Amino acid sequence: MKTFSSYIEILRPLNGFMVGLAVVIGYLISLEEIKSIVLENILYGYITGFFISSSIMIFNDIIDLPIDRINRPDRPLPSGRITVNRALLLGLTIGILGIIFSLLTGFNTLFLALGFWIVGILYNLYLKGIPLVGNMVVSLSIAIPFIYGAYITGNNSYDLNTYILAITAFTINTYREIIKDIA
Fold first, then answer.
1. Which of 23, 35, 115, 155 could lock onto 45 through a cystine, CB 3.0 to 4.6 A?
2. Who contacts 19 (Cβ-Cβ below 8 Å, separation ≥6)?
3. pLDDT 10s digits, 37-68
């Protein structure tokens, strides 16, 4: 049971839940009419957001392992509750599953999800330490799920309200990230 809870912990389910919820919100805002809701698309979009986010979080934990051994030794990797190889396998598996689920709602959503996953991996490997660039990538990860949700509708990918929400989320989070770095 302890191992199972460690795997749940490394997924960072609250973050995944929030990303999935942002996808659903973007979807609902972009609908032309409420009767055109497709529940399968909402489910696939939510799962895609959750899995891609969790995959990126796992890769972050792998990259940050040396730092976490000092600052966060209680986390699953530095504590030894999960091996790096198993974490890598889990991160790749759920990332690929997220990409597969994105394909179920169309090619545009596939490309957006794949792009978001790649940017998340690049952030963990190279961009995190670059001032302002790293902050903006984190903020992009807050904004993109709303746009992804709009893409799921298939007919209204350029809904102005969704883009206003995404830009607002991006701007507020960028401000938060910069303040967090200064403090």
1. 23
2. 49, 50, 52, 53, 141, 145
3. 899 999 999 999 999 999 999 999 999 999 99
